[in-house]
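Hi F.,

I've been meaning to write this up properly since the lab meeting, where we talked about keeping a consistent format for the predictions we share between groups. The idea is simple: the sequence comes first, exactly as it goes in, then the structure tokens exactly as they come out, then a line or two of notes. No screenshots and no reformatting. I'm using this chain as the first example so we have something concrete to point to.
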Amino acid sequence: MAASTQSTSATTPHSRAPIRDWLGLAILALPTFLVAIDMTVLHLAVPHLTAALRPSSAQLLWIIDIYGFMIAGCLVIMGTLGDRIGRRRLLLAGAVFFGAASTFAAFAGSAATLLTARALLGVSAAALMPSTLALLTDMFRDSRQRGIAIAIWSSLFMAGTTIGPIIGGALLEYFWWGSVFLLNVPLMLILLAAGPFVLPENVRSGGGRLDLASAALFLSAVLTAVYGIKHIATNALDLKALLALAVGLGIGTMFLNRQTKLADPMLDLSLFRNTRFSAGLATQFLTIFAVATPYFLSTQYLQLVAGLSPLEAGLAMLPPMLAGIAASLLAPVATRILHPGSVTGLMMLIAAVGFALLALTSANGTLNAVLGGLALITIGSSATMAVIVNIIISAAPEERAGEASGLSEMSGEFGMALGLAVIGSVASAAYRLSLAKAHGSDGNAGATGAMDALGTAIAEAEKLDTASGNALLTASREAFVTSLALSAVIGLTLVLGLAVLAFRVLRRVPRQNSG
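Output, unedited:
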């Protein structure tokens, strides 16, 4: 028998949301924004915390990566848990732990302590994110209003990721490195104070307890696989990476087999038989897969090729970000006129133009091609996410909204990780090959270290005489632009394929009815 759902929300199916629910959306914006900020806010603080805590290179890598690792591994588990014990209850519990872990991180006295705090932040962030998205489905039953609410949610997540380095840079101008974490505390207190009054509760009845063995298998499978993917992105496709991926795949297979034998599985595999759901997840994954590396390399271009400071580069990213936010807010309005599949296809074509501009970028040109390309890519991908996330969440049964939210967000995490690993590895190989052809054959010792990355090449050039240093800088920057252009061409190919998928597959899926 299907589990029923008990909700304390005043909103009934097919009704328009009252003012209380819009206030609730404003409260849900706080954890969404902060979780995104914490993904990037630490990047500028690395030199400061390195000087203070003196972590080893391995510890530093884990301090940066463990947050995203734990989020990816716990999203579906937490989403399913929220469906069972109550989404508001899990959200508020997550807020308590997120605030506590932030304080713990801010005053960490050693690298090991900071690493532990970052892991706890990742787990508590995973408790926050599926709950925010699932609660939106409880509060906004009207499909048009839900589309707008999800678009706002998506915009805030994107804004947090972009603004994170800017906020981090501003705080580091006046305070110590731990201050980047303390921003979380007062906003979590606001969530805890206002949440019980403006957010509904929703609890599945008859759903049973969360299967701990399934949760352990799922977490192990995801963490092992993500580790393998990250290893490919930062090192190479070697035996360690292949072993991690194989182990992750094996544990994942055990997890799926267990789900088929449970009366109330942690992951309902029947969700994937829904065309709206599976096509939506595939589109979300492939869009982020295509965008991740060109976007990352473009931000490096602003600093390492164009010579902007971190703060200047962050400010330069604001116009593309604002354009993306506007597009994501307008996308639900466009779906009232056109089929969501058509809107998605058109947005992919806009992103394709952006990738084409990036592919035409030169090492000594203006920033117009890069910033214009970034703006169009952000417009296309942000609007697509606003439409696709609504498709995914609305396709799942109400009692599985948390689980669907976790799957949606995990799809994005895997898309980014795999995109950086696969396309990033291809781009790195292109950089090394291009630099070797232009500069590696003259016997210059500086070229050897420059092969690793453009940042290393710049450091090596400073050790050489003026003529040799300038020659190495020119060659390495041109090689970097070659790698950026190649990643853009790959992204262009993928989004054109997604446009075809949207026009030919998503357009065949019936429109969602209100409610």
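Notes:
The longest strand covers residues 4-7.
The two ends are 23 Å apart (CA to CA).

If this format works for you, I'll send the rest the same way.

G.
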